[in-house]
Write a structure and sequence with these properties.
With 118 residues, the chain is mostly helical. 41% of the residues lie in helices and 5% in strands. A two-stranded antiparallel sheet has the order 1-2. It starts with 14 loop residues before the first helix and ends in a 13-residue tail after the last helix.
Length: 118
């Protein structure tokens, strides 16, 4: 039997939209911890005609300069994490050996047809 009692604002709540907003909020906050902020980020409604039946998080567009700046900021943070655990960073624009230089210093194991079983 249907309850015909009074409703409150929760009657109109779209849980899918709220879940998308919660995920988007967590994502934006994680990016901001890396000093990255997308001005055009947003939550898009589902669109069956567009072939995305669920809510989507849209990052919008960023300039080439912003992409370079964001990459530098993220790499700097990741390099800092590498220093904490003793692992070498990727280098890249923030300094240190780049991946190809680091990899060229390591001995390369060649595959063998006579590999011993483990």
């Amino acid at each position: 039997m249907t309850d015909f009692g009074p409703v409150d604002r929760g009657y109109w709540t779209n849980n899918d939209r709220e879940n998308a907003e919660d995920a988007a909020t967590a994502f934006v906050n994680a990016l901001r911890r890396l000093q990255v902020d997308f001005d055009d980020i947003g939550v898009e409604e589902p669109c069956a005609a567009c072939n995305h039946p669920a809510h989507m998080i849209s990052l919008g567009s960023i300039s080439v300069a912003e992409a370079a700046q964001f990459a530098q900021r993220i790499n700097r943070r990741l390099d800092g994490l590498g220093e904490l655990d003793g692992s070498p960073g990727d280098g890249g624009p923030s300094g240190g050996p780049c991946r190809s230089e680091r990899d060229s210093e390591r001995p390369v194991a060649k595959p063998s047809s006579h590999a011993a079983p483990r």
